[in-house]
Amino acid sequence: xxxxxxxxxQAIENLRALxxxxxxxxxxxxxxxxxEDTPQRIAELDQSLLAxxxxxxxxxxxxxxxxxxxxxxMALRAVAEKLEHQSRTQGLNAITPAxxxxxxxxxxxxxxxxTLVSK
Length: 119
Known about the structure:
This protein is about 80% helix and about 0% strand.
């Protein structure tokens, strides 16, 4: 995912524009929700993979895709979209490498978002 930005600066600016002059309070709140919720969705991916529950896996990947897009976490969104599509069309066989990639991209997004909101 090297060619896709970890965080799209325009998405961050769009979020800031929703509540101008609030010293990034809204952005911090949205980032906080994302950082709290996404590990729960990743846990759902792990659990549904173990249980071979494709529909739950697809829903969790879809949720991560949407929340990542909202925050501009483009590399994470791209991997979540790949996971959603792959699990929907091919099931859960051989999905572990993409799931590992999603976890790495979340770590990268978490780091960049943390830097953005701590400024």
